[in-house]
User: Fold this.
Amino acid sequence: MERVPILKIGDILLVSIQLDMSDQTAVQLQEALAERIVDTGCHGVIIDITALDIVDSFVGRMLSTIASISKVLDAETVVVGMRPAVAITLVELGLSLNGIRTALNVERGMELIAAAHADELDYQLDDDPDAETARP
Amino acid sequence: MGIDLGQPQAQSVRSDEDVVRVRQLVRAVAVASKLSLVDQTKLVTAASELARNTLVYGGGGSVEVTVVDNGRRKGVQIVFADSGPGIADLDLAMTDGYTSGGGLGLGLSGSRRLVDEFQIETSPETGTRITVTKWSR
Assistant:
């Protein structure tokens, strides 16, 4: 069975799917990614599907599941590089890709993750009861 | 992959990897038949859903891809056949979101939307046979 490589770039894990994945490979990727998020403490996952010429319901569900798992593990997932024909087909198939953030390319995906993480840090600071009492 | 478009192309479906091979075969035939990029994508996606059903629900089977011509247009026809238990309630199985397995319930209903023609014959004795056709525009 082939494996999809997971690269770590700073605070982000980058997965660039370059092969026509079997269902088993997709499930393996899902599990490997969850482990890498915990091992590295990364706060963002970018899944680049530029090379995929179809996304069927199985891969669609895998993307949704990865997004949900990473959310629970304190990481934001962004799917980037979807081809126009793939987007048209997904909508007609009836797949809504629930909970998945998308961006047109890797660069914008990284910006999205950085912004989401900054928002979260702000929110945590605002919410911190110690910070509240420390104010005059 | 050298493809003789005059002949039906067959692929057995016995494993995950065979579903990948079905996608690749359908893509090659769709490209050779000059379907548009969006139509290729729709047909390959439908084929992926249906081949997975053949494997998961039909217990394996076979796929045959043929280039067809109705006098006005060319198209690609795909037959998915298995000798599994058949589909007990076809109307229910064709409903969006219904699944008897662990899927999303979009395989049958979704793939019907992606093709131009969709026929299904099913019985407990003969299994399930689905024929789909996509015509060039």
Observations:
- The helical segments of chain B are 16-32, 37-56, 90-93, 107-114.
- Residues 54 and 123 of chain B are 14 Å apart (CA to CA).
